[in-house]
TrEMBL record:
One of its GO terms (molecular function) is mechanosensitive monoatomic ion channel activity. It is a multi-pass membrane protein. Gene3D superfamilies: 1.10.287.1260, 2.30.30.60, 3.30.70.100. InterPro entries: LSM_dom_sf, MscS_archaea/bacteria_type, MscS_beta-dom_sf, MscS_channel_2nd, MscS_channel_C_sf. The chain crosses the membrane at residues 25-42, 62-84, 90-109. This is Mechanosensitive ion channel protein MscS. The keyword Cell membrane applies. The lineage of its organism: Bacteria, Pseudomonadati, Bacteroidota, Flavobacteriia, Flavobacteriales. It holds the Pfam family MS_channel_2nd. It comes from Kaistella jeonii. Residues 111-177 form the Mechanosensitive ion channel MscS domain. PANTHER family: SMALL-CONDUCTANCE MECHANOSENSITIVE CHANNEL. One of its GO terms (cellular component) is plasma membrane. It is found in: Cell membrane. Signal peptide: none annotated.
Length: 277
């Protein structure tokens, strides 16, 4: 066997194959470069359109979406270019061989991808923003930062809680800052031998003196029910925006207790409330 001739034969075959494929390779490269330029051009147009329809959108969310859009265009261009070069079948077989790994990775990264998309959707939907007072999945506090994977919340106790973004859209959440004035509800128990008309008037007049009370004329004192010789009352009033509801409730209960005692009105004791005693 003439090894020299074999090598020359192989090289000659490669040369002819490369010469035949050169036009396809050149066209494929040109097509890919065209898609590359097109992705940059369309990205700039998309940014302008996005800001036109969503002027208050954050740059972080816009950049994330545009990057995904640009990547999809480049990926499409790469597949078309490879098909022109005659390598489409090889690429598809290679991708098919990664199918099992893709399924495993998809399951493993499901929560991660969900949080990423949820973070982008928060920026688009404007459900809440940094500085808003919210309640998400039993976590209540001020939003410090909306990240790509988690939302950082400072609770009333001063703790920093990281809430996965995927939880935001999996259940209802409350944005107190977007709700305008918040309404405060205070439950009080009054013994049945007390003057209810006088009691409700004293409570209502005292509520109207609170610094945190807003819409004074809409304050209410409701008698909810009577049970075992106890009248259950509920005081309702709007709180001024920006006030700390926990502090407002604490101050209000203390002032109401003192005012009722000054007026000779007794609150129900635990012994009176407990029917077993």
């Amino acid at each position: 066997m003439n090894y020299y001739e074999t090598i020359l034969s192989v090289l000659d075959k490669w040369y002819k194959g490369f010469a035949e494929a050169t036009p396809r390779i050149a066209v494929g490269i040109l097509v890919f470069l065209l898609f590359l330029a097109l992705s940059s051009f369309l990205s700039k147009i998309s940014v302008r359109i996005f800001h036109k329809f969503f002027p208050k959108s954050k740059n972080r969310s816009v950049v994330a979406l545009i990057k995904v859009f640009k990547f999809l265009i480049i990926l499409s261009g790469a597949f078309i270019s490879l098909e022109i070069m005659g390598m489409g079948g090889f690429v598809l077989k290679f991708i098919g061989s990664l199918g099992v790994a893709g399924v495993v990775a998809g399951v493993a990264l499901k929560d991660l991808v969900s949080s990423m998309f949820s973070g982008a959707l928060v920026g688009i939907d404007k459900s809440f923003a940094d500085g808003d007072y919210v309640s998400i999945k039993d976590v209540t506090g001020v939003v410090e930062k909306i990240g790509f994977l988690t939302t950082k919340i400072i609770t009333d106790e001063g703790k920093k809680v990281f809430v996965p973004n995927q939880l935001i859209f999996s259940a209802p959440f409350i944005n107190y800052s977007a709700s305008g004035q918040r309404k405060v509800f205070l439950d009080l128990q009054i013994a049945s031998d007390q003057d209810l008309e006088k009691t409700t008037k004293v409570i209502l007049d005292e509520i109207k003196t609170f610094d945190a009370t807003d819409h004074i004329d809409e304050a209410q004192v409701i008698i909810l029910k009577q049970s075992f010789g106890i009248f259950y009352l509920q005081a309702r009033f709007f709180m001024k925006k920006g006030e700390n509801i926990a502090k407002v409730k604490s101050d209000a209960l203390l002032k109401l207790k003192n005012k009722l005692e000054e007026s000779g009105i007794k609150l129900a004791t635990q012994i009176q409330i407990d029917p077993s005693t």
